[in-house]
Design a protein that fits this description.
Blueprint: E1 14-15, H1 37-42, H2 44-52, H3 57-73, E2 78-80, E3 86-90, H4 91-94, E4 108-115, E5 121-128, E6 131-132, H5 136-145, E7 153-158, E8 165-175, H6 182-204
Antiparallel strand pairs: 1-6, 2-3, 3-4, 4-5, 5-8, 7-8
């Protein structure tokens, strides 16, 4: 017995930036005040002591290496001590291609160092992609349409603030080995830039349902 075709029109996948009423802050602790990117960038030095406070030695050392790398490249960044010790960068800094698909300066890329399941350290980069639909099936179809990457991962996760699905890109590498050096970080950001560009290009060309 065949199922009847659903003839109801479905909304297209849309850029968040073209729908200001749908814009929402990145996934952070909803119980803690949201800190916009501009504030984090402007107050990086003021937040540094609080950010590094109580960090275990290995994690603090990894963040210090990343910060030194960003400063040498001249990349602006912020330190968020209130939402899980996050390092925050403008998305356009990591992936200039992102601007070609309607990205805005307030779009963020998050960096964080944490323990993996085996107890080792892991450096991760994450970005909530600026696309949305209120129809979960559209988001699921777009997820299947998006490219499969060699290194990074794409996934859908429910946003606790509005119960809509977020499209998320994540790239992570274990640390020690490899030792976190400028060469490793250069490769890490090169991969992220390329894979984010491929994802944004594909989602920007996503066909209407």
């Amino acid at each position: 017995m065949s199922k009847e075709k659903d003839e109801r029109p479905r909304p297209n996948l849309r850029l968040v930036v073209n729908n200001p009423d749908k814009q929402r802050p990145p996934r952070k602790d909803p119980e803690t005040e949201y800190l916009p990117l501009e504030e984090l960038l402007a107050n990086c030095d003021e937040f540094r002591a609080l950010f590094y406070q109580d960090l275990e030695r290995g994690i603090a050392r990894a963040y210090t290496v990343v910060e030194r790398f960003l400063l040498e490249k001249g990349w602006p960044h912020g330190l968020d001590p209130l939402h899980g010790k996050l390092m925050v960068l403008p998305a356009g800094t990591v992936c200039p291609y992102h601007d070609q698909y309607g990205g805005e300066n307030k779009d963020e890329v998050l960096l964080f160092v944490s323990r993996d399941l085996q107890g080792g350290l892991c450096l991760a980069l994450e970005m909530v992609l600026p696309f949305f639909s209120e129809d979960d099936s559209v988001m699921e179809d777009a997820f299947l349409y998006a490219p499969v990457h060699q290194y990074g991962t794409l996934f859908l996760e429910e946003n606790r603030q509005d119960s809509l699905l977020d499209f998320i890109y994540r790239l992570s590498i274990p640390l020690a080995p490899p030792t976190l050096t400028p060469r490793v970080l250069e490769r890490f950001f090169t991969i992220a830039s390329f894979e984010l560009a491929e994802t944004l290009r594909a989602l920007g060309e996503y066909p209407e349902p």
